[in-house]
Structure formats: structure tokens, C-alpha cells
């Protein structure tokens, strides 16, 4: 009988997506759920009650948090290339 000489499959690297920066993504989820912080009519901004312009501000907070987490957790291609 011929022995099987196929190489073993490489072991996958451990996951590295467990960054503390990911906790920042909870902010855009929880902030709009805290209705007492924006359940009022004044101050008005360009005639819009606070509820409406704060909802728009929550969108900007979500975009800012997502962008920051992405920038802080992405792998740097130049750093990976220099390690090789």
C-alpha cells in the first residue's frame, strides 16, 4: 500500500477582531433608546422641535462612531507588508 503523503491543512490563525474599540458601537444603538434625553419640544433649531433635529444628530453620532471604530481596528496594509 502506498502511504498518503498529502500535507496537513494549515491551522487557521486565531480571530483578531476582538478590539475594545468595538464597544463604541453600542453608543449609536443605546443613545436613541434613551427617550427622556430628547423628549421635549424646545429648543427649536430652524423651527424644528428638539426631537427631530436630535434624531438627525443621532445619525451623525452613528456615522462618527462607525468611522472611528473602522479606522482604529482596520489592519494597516503598510504595517503588514513591512512585517513580511
What does this structure look like?
The chain is an all-alpha fold and 84 residues long. The chain has a domain at 20-73. The protein is built from 3 helices and no strands. The chain is rod-shaped. It starts with 26 loop residues before the first helix and ends with a helix. The model has no long low-confidence stretch (mean pLDDT 81).
Number of DSSP-assigned strands: 0
Cα-atom radius of gyration: 24 Å
* Helix percentage range: 40-55%
What fraction of the residues are assigned to beta strands by DSSP?
under 5%
Number of helices: 3
The helix/strand series, from N terminus to C terminus, equals HHH
Mean pLDDT: 81
Described by strand count, sense and barrel closure, the largest sheet is: none
Note the gap between the termini.
41 Å
Q: What global shape is seen? A: rod-shaped
- Structural class computed from helices and strand pairing: mainly alpha
Spans of at least 5 consecutive residues whose pLDDT stays below 50 are: none
Write the layout of secondary structure elements.
Blueprint: H1 27-30, H2 50-73, H3 77-83
Compact description:
The chain has 84 residues and is mainly α. It has helices spanning 27-30, 50-73, 77-83. The protein has a domain at 20-73.
Tags for this entry?
about 80 residues, mainly alpha
Amino acid at each position: 500500500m502506498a502511504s498518503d503523503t498529502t500535507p496537513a491543512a494549515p491551522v487557521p490563525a486565531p480571530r483578531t477582531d476582538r478590539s475594545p474599540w468595538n464597544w463604541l458601537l453600542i453608543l449609536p444603538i443605546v443613545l436613541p433608546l434613551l427617550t427622556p434625553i430628547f423628549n421635549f419640544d424646545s429648543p427649536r433649531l430652524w423651527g424644528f422641535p428638539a426631537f427631530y433635529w436630535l434624531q438627525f444628530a443621532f445619525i451623525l453620532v452613528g456615522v462618527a462612531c462607525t468611522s472611528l471604530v473602522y479606522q482604529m481596528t482596520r489592519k494597516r496594509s503598510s504595517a503588514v507588508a513591512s512585517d513580511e
